[in-house]
């Protein structure tokens, strides 16, 4: 076996696949004196790192359970002129994450709350910070199931570990008084420790109706809003806009 063949086997064993792909080209440049050995090795290792970084980012985004991979560039800010685009884009600098702040998107169905929340969440995941997206109803169902199986504490720890937790469509479905207590325990655990994004169509003054307990509702609002950015969207529905554009055909 030649030294080159042994090198190939070593790279395969180490699973340096990207380095393997570009090795012949870089060797040619080194042999022809168009690159030094160090320059060639630097190029190869940079390509390997870039490939692994992309793979890590893809994995983080995939495990975030996002409903789509839309970005802020795909959001029609011109259709929702009341939204401060600069403020939204500043969230992708992730300072709110560093400060353990929350974001609440409040508005009628179809105005783009989930799109904005997801886009911000994906930007966080791409920075290799643990992020998770879940519908409020699904979250509560998981907590209820865990309680019945005597593993509620572990489940709350699971949802507390995420640097950013996105809870979508809070208030769209009724929440019983007992379920409200479970939701409060999670919010309380994350309070001032991690960041949470909430999307809801319910004004804060009516959260007591959603949670069917004014005391619990006030406690949840207090913790969510203590360090929070509230984005109220009063625009029209994108779904209605699409319906008009297609002439009412779906």
Total beta strands: 5
How many domains comprise the coordinates? 2
Alpha-carbon distance between the two ends = 65 Å
CATH superfamily of the largest domain: P-loop containing nucleotide triphosphate hydrolases
Major sheet: 5 strands, parallel
Low-confidence region ranges? none
Question: What is the CATH T-level topology of the largest domain?
Answer: Rossmann fold
CATH class of the largest domain: Alpha Beta
Shape: elongated
Rg computed from alpha carbons, rounded to a whole number of angstroms: 24 Å
Describe the protein's architecture and organization.
It is a single chain. The chain is an alpha/beta fold. It folds into 2 domains: 3-63, no CATH class; 72-244, P-loop containing nucleotide triphosphate hydrolases (Rossmann fold). The protein is built from 12 helices and 5 strands. It has helices at 3-13, 17-31, 37-63, 85-90, 95-98, 113-125, 136-148, 152-160, 177-190, 207-211, 214-225, 238-245, and strands spanning 102-107, 131-135, 164-170, 195-200, 228-233. The chain has a 5-stranded parallel beta sheet. Strand 3, helix 9 and strand 4 form a beta-alpha-beta unit. Helix 2 (17-31) packs antiparallel against helix 3, helix 7 packs antiparallel against helix 8 and helix 8 packs across helix 9. Keywords: ATP-binding, Nucleotide-binding. Pfam families: IstB_IS21. Belongs to the IS21/IS1162 putative ATP-binding protein family. GO terms for molecular function: ATP binding. Residues 99-232 form the AAA+ ATPase domain.
């Amino acid at each position: 076996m030649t030294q080159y063949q042994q090198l190939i086997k070593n790279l395969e064993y180490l699973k340096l696949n990207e380095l393997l792909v570009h090795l012949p080209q870089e060797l040619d440049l080194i042999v022809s004196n168009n690159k030094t050995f160090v320059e060639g090795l630097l190029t190869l290792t940079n390509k390997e790192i870039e490939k692994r970084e992309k793979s890590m980012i893809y994995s983080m985004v995939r495990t975030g359970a996002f409903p789509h991979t839309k970005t802020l560039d795909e959001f029609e800010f011109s259709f929702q002129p009341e939204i401060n685009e600069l403020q939204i884009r500043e969230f992708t600098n992730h300072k709110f994450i560093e400060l353990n702040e929350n974001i609440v998107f409040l508005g009628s169905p179809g105005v783009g709350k989930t799109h904005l929340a997801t886009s911000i969440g994906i930007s966080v995941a791409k920075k290799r910070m643990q992020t998770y997206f879940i519908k409020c109803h699904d979250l509560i169902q998981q907590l209820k199931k865990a309680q019945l199986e005597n593993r509620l504490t572990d489940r709350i720890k699971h949802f507390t570990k995420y640097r950013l937790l996105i809870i979508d469509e809070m208030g769209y479905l009724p929440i019983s008084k007992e379920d409200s207590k479970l939701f409060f325990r999670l919010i309380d655990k994350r309070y001032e420790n991690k960041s949470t994004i909430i999307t809801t169509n319910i004004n804060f003054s009516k959260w007591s109706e959603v949670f069917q307990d004014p005391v619990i509702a006030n406690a949840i609002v207090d913790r969510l809003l203590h360090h929070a950015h509230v984005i109220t969207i009063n625009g029209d529905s994108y779904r209605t806009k699409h319906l008009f554009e297609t002439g009412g055909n779906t």
